[in-house]
Amino acid sequence: MGAHLLVGAHVVAVLAVVLAAALLGRVAARAARQPEVIGEILAGILVVPVVAAVAGHGALAALLPPDVLGVLKYIGKIGLVLFLVGVAHELRRGSGGLGPRSVGWVAIGSFFPALAAGFLLAGWVLWSGDDALRGTAPVLSLVLMIAVALSVTAVPVLARILEDRDMMAGRNGKLSMAAAVFTDSTAWLLLVVAMGTASGGWTGVVRSLAVLLAGVVIAVLGRVLLRGSTSSALAARIPKLLSVGVAVVALVLAIQMEHWGLTAVFGAFVVGLAMPNGEGAERWEAVTRPVASLGRLFVPVFFVVAGMGLFATPTSSMPWLAVVLATALAIVGKVGGGYLGARLGGEDRRDSVVIGVLMNTRGLTEIVVLQAGYSAGLLTAGLFLALVVMALVTTALTGPLLSLIDLRARRTASLPVLELQGGRQ
């Protein structure tokens, strides 16, 4: 009993440090005018190497022994699952009355060129012959995993950027959100295929797709059952109790999905997608919001565990060439592809550039995808690290690039006035 109490006290102390580091990361990100998730990711992942550098690996092992790390792993996964319930509900946002031509072209342009860029990066990894990057994953699984990594757009981070810049109700915001829903949903499907081929060849793919189909059926049935007036009335009357029920169902389904060979977060997506998002949506948002908020509180623990697993694996050095190639291809695929799709959809040049920059936002969704691939053995530590850096760089570029576009637009708009004033003088 005493040993359990000591472990519990140890876990609480580590949690306090992690949450304090996450708070400092959010404050630093706000000061740098970056999305808060950038600070949380950096704080969580860098806690482990900073402690190891300051106090040594022996002290790190004492601070995070296996029993404590095991508890933290479960806490981080629970936080991630609960948070992704809200993310999946966010994916239910519609296109806001936009024309299907515009939405379709932006979605196609922001997904398929990025997917092709991922294929190019995967080809380079296979061609390089570097075992530190290649690993032992099956070729098809590795290629799909890298392609998914470059094609993701983070819906929750994108939504936060749009809200901070008062762009959510504008045409560019709606187009980028609608396209991001398409790209993220498709990327998750491809991730299922990648993990299925790794776990059991095409038999694993068929099994994974069967589980995926079952999840879709559960989400659709849940949406039908919860859409009625009786369910909406319950959501308005006892939202907190329903929040507890949603959290429990999401955790149980996540455990079951993992048992069936899929990533646990798919269970969270099924529950989030089952929440109604039409008439009376605000009532169900009151149910899912506390679940997502509780999960968001403990998501930094997930980053710490990811950092522990990453830096516990010896790597000779930072794979800088892989970082540069991944970042360059990611930007070309998303910004260039998003711009091309928006232009084909009828948008002007400036709006097309804005949409391309917005689609280049990756953030938390990318880290979750990468961690799933790393845990499944599809990504080596070196390649995982390179893609994490790519995700952070591309997300961090979103704000400054949007500000630069706005500044250039203001300068262009003022040129005729300046020329007219000069002529009068």
UniProtKB/TrEMBL annotation:
It holds the Pfam family Na_H_Exchanger. GO terms for molecular function: antiporter activity. Residues 20-403 form the Cation/H+ exchanger transmembrane domain. It is a multi-pass membrane protein. GO terms for biological process: proton transmembrane transport. Keywords: Ion transport, Membrane, Transmembrane, Transmembrane helix, Transport. GO terms for cellular component: membrane. The keyword Acetylation does not apply. It is found in: Membrane. Its main location: membrane. The chain crosses the membrane at residues 6-29, 41-65, 71-91, 103-127, 139-163, 175-198, 204-226, 238-255, 261-278, 290-312, 318-341, 353-374, 380-405. It comes from the Bacteria. This is Transporter (CPA2 family).
